[in-house]
Specification:
Number of helices: 9
Helix content: 25-40%
Strand order of the largest sheet: 3-2-1-4-7-8-9
CATH superfamily of the largest domain: Dipeptide transport protein
Largest sheet: 7 strands, mixed
CATH architecture of the largest domain: 3-Layer(aba) Sandwich
CATH topology of the largest domain: Rossmann fold
Shape: globular
Distance between the termini: 69 Å
Order of helices and strands: EHEEHEEEHEHEEHEHEEHHH
CATH class of the largest domain: Alpha Beta
Radius of gyration: 22 Å
């Protein structure tokens, strides 16, 4: 059986501080990466014990140049898929999926670091609030791949019981607020994940692919009205109150593209005040000048690679 391990970081056993999830805090982040690798390895052992023949691991937390775990730290050196290709194993390779290190959706009061992709947005799909777990499970489900196990804090496991009742839930810590969490001892957490993965494989035939209704009503909620303002540039977006926009998506995939675009626009809006401050620094002004020159000189001094409409050129 081919099994993909889809990973996130905030729900990993041993992670109890937000700094462990961001490379801006190098020492804490390295400790967090080791904790996530331990969770993945425990899952790999359980899956193999349960009969998995092929395993791939998908990076679901980090993008760009930083990684939430090192490929070389994983037992048996499974293939690791990152970045824009991360959905491929979930949709065109795997027969089953398991989720490791996941967290609860935005607005969960007792979910450790609960959020939906970022701290300033939330998502509803088909009239229900959902989080990254449902987004990933429906991505798998659209290709007929069921999720067999979810690991994370107690709020994440509770969420999985509602959306994925057939999946094995493995609780590795228990939060009282978004930032306060009590950890399970490391060895106990690893045993629980390994045992849960083996149990999930034993009942793999019970797994059901999660499919959301289509067309799908999408609502993106924002922390502040100005973020909703910025996202109204999206085609076919409609305003839904001061802090939300809506979209009727013909398919789940189009709904997720709409949500991703709204998140990107929100990120840009959040960065504008910082960029305004940075532009007052002489070194940043010099860099901006050099960047502009790198664009202007080729445009003005090199032959254009483009061809204008000849009919328009003939109208002297």
């Amino acid at each position: 059986m081919k099994v993909v391990i889809a990973t996130d970081m905030e729900g990993a056993a041993g992670i109890d501080r937000v700094e462990q999830c961001f490379p801006s805090y190098p020492e804490a982040f390295q400790a967090g990466r080791r904790q996530l690798a331990e969770d993945i390895n425990a899952c790999i052992r359980g899956l193999r014990r349960g009969g998995a023949k092929e395993i791939k691991v998908v990076e679901g937390h980090a993008w760009g140049d930083f990684h939430a775990f090192e490929s070389g730290d994983l037992d048996g050196h499974p293939e690791v898929v990152r970045g824009r290709r991360s959905r491929e194993p979930m949709q065109s390779w795997a027969e089953k999926a398991v989720f490791v290190g996941y967290h609860a959706m935005a607005g969960t009061p007792d979910g450790f670091l609960s959020h939906t992709t970022m701290g300033s947005v939330a998502l509803s799909a088909g009239g229900e609030p959902v989080g990254e777990m449902v987004m990933a499970a429906a991505t798998c489900g659209s290709a007929g791949v069921p999720v067999l196990m979810v690991t994370g804090d107690h709020a994440t496991v509770r969420e999985a019981r509602y959306f994925l009742p057939w999946a094995v839930g493995v609780e590795v810590k228990r939060a009282s607020t978004i930032s306060k969490v009590a950890l399970m001892p490391r060895d106990d957490a690893s045993r629980a994940i390994e045992t849960g993965a083996a149990a999930a494989m034993a009942k793999a035939q019970d797994g059901v692919p999660l499919r959301l209704p289509e067309p799908l009503e999408i609502e993106v909620q924002f922390r502040a009205p100005e973020f909703a303002d910025a996202s109204m540039i999206l085609p076919m977006a409609r305003r839904q109150g001061d802090r939300a926009i809506g979209f009727t998506a013909p398919t789940f995939a189009e709904g997720m593209r709409f949500f991703a675009s709204a998140v990107q626009l929100t990120t840009q809006a959040r960065q504008r005040p910082l960029w305004s401050k940075l532009q007052t620094l002489p070194e940043v002004q010099q860099m901006s000048h050099e960047f502009l020159e790198s664009f202007l000189r080729p445009w003005l001094e090199q032959p254009s690679p483009f061809v204008a409409n000849p009919k328009a050129l003939s109208k002297e």
